[in-house]
């Protein structure tokens, strides 16, 4: 019985499908990322190794063989964050769309209202919405709340000088699970010149999970949404609702690294907020509250 199954042509078909899927995931993983540079170097070494073997270049072949071993170790060490993201991505159920569970935005209207109010008041905010990848480790690092999701609650949390206004709020299982959570900062160094710490933290957590993050800038009052390592800025409440709907409907996935920052027009400034900091003149961003928050 088992021999018949093994000899079945369906096994060959399954073999091809699995290999094709793995190759597809590999291409998606390295596309538009710094990993592609490492793969280009590795491909060059393999070509040299092939030529050295067939042309019987003993010294060159020996050197290339040593370099290939070093290359593998260097790849694991240097690209540990990318490999972790790839394994997390591979383990998500939405990798196979037919088995994907229905994904809904918890208390969407309350979250949208909160973002609008916070933007109008010039209060910085960082709201993380958990999806399939659990954020339990990060929740435990914050102040546990287990509160109902309401616009008033979110607005109160991010209002200074309250003890919870610094850090992020994490929404998990339809509840406000924790506040004052310190998130990981993205390792994309180039973003440090254009984004403050709050936005880079949003990108950082989105690179490590499938969460959706809403950011309100204290300095510009701009609303941004971050997902899968990508950020869209300068959104109105309507734009934010459309973007959230698109993310949740499509369950889109993509490369996590080296995505361009998409600027958008900042909302028209409202009345001055007593809590908004004043930016220093010139290119020095040290006085930018959104840069420090």
Largest sheet features = 7 strands, mixed
Oligomeric form: single chain
**Structural class from helices and strands?**
alpha+beta
In total, the number of domains comes to 2
Mean pLDDT: 77
CA-based shape: elongated
Biggest sheet: strand arrangement: 2-4-3-1-5-6-7
What's this, in brief?
With 293 residues, the protein is an alpha+beta fold. 46% of the residues lie in helices and 13% in strands. The protein has eleven helices and seven strands.
Write the SSE topology.
Elements: H1 2-6, H2 9-30, H3 35-54, H4 58-78, H5 80-91, H6 108-121, E1 125-129, H7 136-140, E2 143-147, H8 151-157, E3 168-172, E4 175-181, H9 197-208, E5 212-216, E6 223-227, E7 230-235, H10 237-250, H11 289-292
Parallel strand pairs: 1-3
Antiparallel strand pairs: 1-5, 2-4, 3-4, 5-6, 6-7
Give an overview of the whole structure.
The chain is α+β, with helices and mostly antiparallel strands and 293 residues long. The chain folds into two domains: 2-99, no CATH class; 108-292, DNA integrity scanning protein, DisA, N-terminal domain (YojJ-like (1, 3-Layer(aba) Sandwich), CATH 3.40.1700.10. The protein has helices spanning 2-6, 9-30, 35-54, 58-78, 80-91, 108-121, 136-140, 151-157, 197-208, 237-250, 289-292; strands at residues 125-129, 143-147, 168-172, 175-181, 212-216, 223-227, 230-235. It is elongated and about 75 Å long. Helix content is 46%, strand content 13%. Mean pLDDT is 77; it is low at 93-100 and 252-293. The termini are far apart. Helix 3 runs antiparallel to helix 4 (58-78). Strands 2-4-3-1-5-6-7 form a seven-stranded mixed sheet, with helices on both faces. It has eleven helices and seven strands.
């Amino acid at each position: 019985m088992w021999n018949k199954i093994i000899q079945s042509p369906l096994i060959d078909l399954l073999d091809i499908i699995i290999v094709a899927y793995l190759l597809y995931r590999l291409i998606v993983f390295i596309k538009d990322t710094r990993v592609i540079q490492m793969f280009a170097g590795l491909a060059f070494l393999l070509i040299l190794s092939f030529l050295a073997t067939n042309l019987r270049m003993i010294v060159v072949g020996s050197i290339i063989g040593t370099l290939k071993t070093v290359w593998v170790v260097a790849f694991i060490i240097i690209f540990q964050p990318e490999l972790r993201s790839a394994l997390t991505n591979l383990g998500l159920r939405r990798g196979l769309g037919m088995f994907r569970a229905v994904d809904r935005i918890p208390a969407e209207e309350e979250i949208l209202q909160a973002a609008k109010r916070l933007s109008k008041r010039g209060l910085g905010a960082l709201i993380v919405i958990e999806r399939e990848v659990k954020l339990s480790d990060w929740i435990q690092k914050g102040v546990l709340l287990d509160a109902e999701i309401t616009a008033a609650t979110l607005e109160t949390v991010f209002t200074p000088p309250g003890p919870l206004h610094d850090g992020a709020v994490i929404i998990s299982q339809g509840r406000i699970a924790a506040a004052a959570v310190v998130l990981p900062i993205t390792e994309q160094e180039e973003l440090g010149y254009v984004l403050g710490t709050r936005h880079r933290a949003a990108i950082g957590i989105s690179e490590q999970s499938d969460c959706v993050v809403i950011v309100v800038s204290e300095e510009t009052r701009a609303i941004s949404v971050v997902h899968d390592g990508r950020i869209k800025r300068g959104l109105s409440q309507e734009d934010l609702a459309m973007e959230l709907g698109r993310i949740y409907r499509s369950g889109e996935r993509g490369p996590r690294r080296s995505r361009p920052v998409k600027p958008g027009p900042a909302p028209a400034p409202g009345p001055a907020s007593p809590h908004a900091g004043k930016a220093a003149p010139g290119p020095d961003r040290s006085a930018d509250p959104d840069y420090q928050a």
